[in-house]
Write a structure and sequence with these properties.
- With about 260 residues, this protein is an alpha/beta fold.
- It is about 40% helix and about 30% strand.
- The strands form 3 sheets. It has a 5-stranded mixed beta sheet. The protein has a 5-stranded mixed beta sheet with strand order 10-9-11-8-12, with helices on both faces. A 3-stranded antiparallel beta sheet has the order 2-3-4, covered by helices on one side.
- It is globular.
Length: about 260
């Protein structure tokens, strides 16, 4: 009888300990982001990760009453790092695509954007149509929807698609005359032009038919976390928190 009581007591203690550990695990949510995609996510000179994605992550964590920890990860390895449990979710302006849905589970959108094209100010480019890019070199960040468009659409029309590990490297090559154009998220390009590069370059225009939704990615099996994030997104949109964050970065609606 004493042995039975000891076994029951030990089992109860183990269950309580497991519950405590589970509760502790839920108190912190690790968020993966790139840190090289301003104004959505970027690293300041003193090493702080800031941007629209980060403010949204903080607001969602506050709504869910969990602590947010931001983890930076190179874009090419961001989905494998999620799958390897380096972090719990990706908030990094990731477009929701059918191909990515095979690897991760997405929340509902937290913003919508088309792709756009920028070129040097003295460029003869006035159109984003594929035929206009024939014979030109178009830069894009690798492993993105814009890279796919540059290769599959502009490439087939006779352009050379040049891919880069980061958006910033593509922009640098455009500024240094090594590219004829860069294709990227419209909001990233307009922010860059407004802040530092209106003398260098121009916005050619939006690329027709490329509007995509950005979502938060979690592991395929983490449906409960996805549902909690969806509820938190709905809540911050409804209570005005989303609009306040948006106003820090954009003077137009991106939702």
């Amino acid at each position: 009888m004493q042995i039975s009581r000891w076994i029951i007591s030990a089992a109860s203690a183990a269950m309580l300990a497991a519950g405590a550990l589970s509760a502790q695990a839920q108190e912190k949510l690790k968020i993966g982001t790139e840190g090289a995609y301003p104004p959505f996510n970027t690293i300041t000179s003193d090493g702080k990760v800031v941007g629209f994605d980060i403010d949204i992550a903080d607001a969602l964590c506050a709504q869910m009453k969990v602590e947010c920890e931001i983890v930076t990860q190179d874009w090419d390895g961001i989905i494998p790092a999620l799958q390897a449990k380096k972090f719990d979710a990706i908030i990094a302006s990731m477009s929701i695509t059918e191909e990515r849905k095979k690897q991760v589970s997405f929340t509902n959108k937290y913003y919508t954007t088309p792709l756009s094209l920028v070129a040097p100010k003295d460029s003869d480019l006035t159109s984003t149509e594929p035929a206009a890019l024939a014979g030109k070199t178009v830069g894009a960040q690798a492993s993105t929807t814009q890279a796919t468009y540059a290769q599959d659409v502009y490439g087939k029309a006779g352009a050379e698609a040049k891919l880069y590990p980061t958006q910033e490297e593509a922009i640098t090559d455009l500024q240094n005359g090594r590219l004829d154009a860069v294709i990227s998220d419209k909001f990233v390009l307009t922010d860059w032009l407004k802040k530092s590069s209106e003398d260098c370059c121009k916005l050619v225009g939006d690329v027709k038919g490329t509007e995509t939704e950005a979502g938060i990615a979690v592991r395929l099996e983490d449906t409960a976390l996805r549902d909690k994030l969806n509820a938190a997104i709905d809540a911050i949109v409804a209570d005005g928190t989303y609009k306040k964050i948006q106003a820090k970065y954009f003077d137009f609606d991106i939702y």
